[in-house]
Amino acid sequence: MKTLKEVTLAEKILKEIRICNKCLGRQFPKFRPELSNSEKGILLKLFTITKIKGKKQEGYTWQDLLDLTEEQSCDLCGNIFTKIDDIVAKLIERLEEYEFENFLCGAKIPISLVEKEEKIKSEFKLRGESLRKEIVREVGLKLNKCLKKETNFSDPDIKIIFEPYNEEPAIRITTSPIFYSGRYLVRERGIKVKELIEEFFITNFDAESVKVTLMTVDNRLYLEMPFLVKIIHPKKRGPINNYNDLNGVVLSELKRLSRKEYKDKEFKAEFLIKVIIDDDLTRESKISELKENIKRKKQIVEVNFQNGVNEKEIIVIIGVCGNLNLLKMFSQSNLRVKEFKLIKIDDFKRKDI
Ligand SMILES: [Zn+2]
Asked: How many A from CA of 282 to the centre of ligand 1?
């Protein structure tokens, strides 16, 4: 009974418009779900023809079915599905310069076709998936097979948007950013550290641009400091080799991060500083003055004083994030730095601040 209902509906559609097998089959998602849209279309056309001619299905061979349901020009899709292989070939050509493990593709369809499809769907109360979705799925499946790469819906390495109805299919490709953390050590004073690191990552990943976040202290201190990098629109996706020395900046501990890890990441450094306190003022007032001075700096997240080293010295442990010129900060106060030592640099999450 159900088939009869669907055949009656198919007959109505076929009387009204010229439609290819795939587009007809797509309108009947619940009909014979084990069949492809093309097969559904062929079967519905056959049932309709048999019904009209009053003949029985058994009398037909498979070739007869194909002949009977030979593709006519389709009002709905303009026979776009005959061009899928050409579109896929052009996409593969464009993708040659990119490295990726997985992808996601999408398509832009002319609004006139979308409206025509909507009109037909509402006229016959159809609930099948859209033309755009079927084009995207067909192209996606062929790309899976040809490139041997998976589709990734949540976080693809590469996104491909194509316009199948353009004479020369317009293709827009965007790639997901890549994130790294690492340490850098400046060996020569006066060099442009940030620019060197930027250039290094742009070259390695054939990227459009990079965003480098450095934690810095006075470079006279020669400390290994942390950095983060976001590599924007990379054509290559690593790995990185030979990163030991970039003309005066040494990189180490490079680690690939996920998008979330990068977003959550901040730095925390603990510095051990021995400060000499003037004799003429009390120890307590000097300590509170120092504390106030340090706390005024926005980047400082934590200040701890460990007292009792000796009468004239205190140890300050400061947690900082971002840039901080510690030597300058102390030189502006009346306190003399006797010893300056980086104890450790921790990674910690922004929400912990
Ligand atoms: Zn069609």
From this structure: 89
DSSP-derived secondary structure for 152-215 = -SSS-SEEEEE-TTSSS--EEEEE--EEEEEEEEE-STT--HHHHHHHHHHHHHTEEEEEEEE-
DSSP class of residue 81?
Answer: G
Cα(60)–Cα(56) distance, integer angstroms: 8
- Residue boundaries of the structural domains of the chain: 2-68, 80-175, 178-257, 266-352
Distances (CA, A) of 304 to 122, 250, 272, 288, 353: 70, 31, 10, 11, 15
In this structure, which topology does domain 80-175 adopt according to CATH? VC0802-like (3.30.2130)
Q: How close is the Cα of 178 to the center of ligand 1, in Å?
A: 40
Distance CA 116, CA 175 (A): 33
Same fold, 178-257 and 266-352: yes
Rounded to the nearest whole angstrom, what is the distance from the C-alpha of residue 114 to the centroid of ligand 1? 13
Q: How far is the CA of 89 from the centre of ligand 1 (A)?
A: 21
Cis peptide upstream of residue 234 (ω within 30 degrees of 0)? no
The pLDDT tens digits for 80-136 are: 999 999 999 999 999 999 999 999 999 999 999 999 999 999 998 888 899 999 999
Which ranges of the chain does DSSP label H, i.e. alpha helix?
2-16, 21-26, 37-53, 62-68, 84-95, 111-124, 131-147, 193-205, 259-264, 283-296, 326-331
